[in-house]
Input
Amino acid sequence: MFWWSVYMQRYFTVCSMPCMALLHCTSLSVVMDYIIYGSRTAQVTYIISEHQEAITAKLLEMDRGVTLLDGEGAYNGNKRKVILCAMKRSQIVPVKLMVREIDPDAFVIVCKANEVLGEGFGEYTRTVSETARGTNKRSVFF
Output
């Protein structure tokens, strides 16, 4: 009976090491992303749908900014509007549910944006040279 407990102890030690390493790498990656990019990460959504008017109206009701881009299908040449919308990560699920409700055949692309600047997101900061000159022009600090 003793040999069984020794075997199980060694088995769980060997199996838990890769799991702990994976957990460590994942948590380290999340912390490093937060240090490098800050808390300004967001999601950018591209929505291609035949019902772009209804989807755009709903996004505007949700107090999201919307940009309409001209798109053309390479295969069939159909011209459609592409909806571009930046949002916080917490808003992506309600948006996807809304799009599915309006148009289940819509093509939705969700991308991670490392930084979004503008109304509702991060603010622009002044560069060092502008601060020294005292100009009022706003630009991104690199």
